[in-house]
Write a structure and sequence with these properties.
Number of strands: 8
Low-confidence stretches: none
Protein name: DUF2254 domain-containing protein
Distance between the termini: 49 Å
Keywords: Membrane, Transmembrane, Transmembrane helix
Order of helices and strands: HHHHHHHEEHEEEHEHHEEHHHH
Structural class: alpha+beta
Radius of gyration: 29 Å
Strand order of the largest sheet: 1-5-3-8-7
InterPro entries: DUF2254_membrane (IPR018723)
Pfam families: DUF2254 (PF10011)
Length: 426
Amino acid sequence: MGVARLRQWWADLLASFWLRPAVMTVAAIALAQVLVRAEGWDELPDGLDDWIYAGGAAGARDVLGVLASATIGVAGTTFSITVAALTLASSQMGPRLLRNFTRDPGNQYALGALVATFAYSLVALRSVHDAEEGAFVPQLAVSVGLLLGFACIGVLIWFLHHVAASISVDRVVALVHHDMTAALELACRDTPKEPPEAVAEPQNTAPLTAPGSGYLRVLDDSSLADWAAEHDAVLHLEVRPGGFVFPGSVVGHVTPTRLQEAAQAEIERVMVLGQARSVEQDLEYAVRQLVEIALRALSPGINDPFTAIGVLDRLGASLAGLAGRNLPSGRLRREDRLRLVRPATDYGGLADAMFHMLRQAGETQPSVMIRLLEVLGAVAAVESDPGRNAVLARHAALARDTALRGTEDAAARAAILERHARFGAR
């Protein structure tokens, strides 16, 4: 299993809502078994006797029974609250953001604490015996159960605060921006600057077809380049992470043609297809999740330009963070020979994904368009690459023209022209 595929598998596993609660439940069951078996092994340290349960079997059954019923009831309530929060977030900020809520460790740990305490109480309860059965009361296990019960009260209070905070649009924007920043950091890590060069059209090649259908979630291009170097081959791919792959479609070519069968097997090994896009390698999808929040905020039904302005600030911060850093070119070399060529998101494509749809949606919102021009100017102030500054200037001109077309207010038009003039003076 390649590194990229392993990273995607681990990210999907952590995003699942069941993993952490399941691990906590198993740990609670094991703890209950250990405490029941440890009953009476050693004398407790001085001072702890007053904190240990000292009642009989009937009292222990009552305590553990109440603890089990209460925690499983509260667990159902927390699940209902989570579903309600997901529904609200989906309607206001977009269904593609649901993954950010389900993978939230706080929600998983809160549910896990309640379910684990329920499982602990059941396991401890089964060990309680009356005198007729050979009296046995796991006093240490009952005491720890009480402690877990009090801890669950704290978890419930924290969970209510956490859910209320997690559906705040500012917090959601910050979380999505964090994901986008992490994706950009991963893409730019140790990426060398390569001079622009034309890649010749492949000659005498054999086609490589898709192993299935779906969105390309992971492409282990490093392994592909290593394979090509080992077999003295050159691979030209026509897909990139985030693109939809149709069954049987041509996804690339290999040179020489005699390696078609082996290259096809390698393609099937390193390509991971799925029903949804993923932010791990798909930079544009990470951007579009943030843009979607702003687009919904600018819709007539919501009309919240302040959220759109907040999204623009985050997008500008991400672009400014790319100053002096290199995006992957899609060309991988081994021993100074080109071995793999594939499409890649460049600076212009990233800026287009950030600003095109927002500019179109904000045409009649002068405050949004003014802020867009200000953000573009702030990014240009820290960017020294002439090619990237040309991209920013193009978007500034488009924003100016769109904003002037969308408003007749004299003060707004003057502010728009002033911001664009300030951009050009940099």
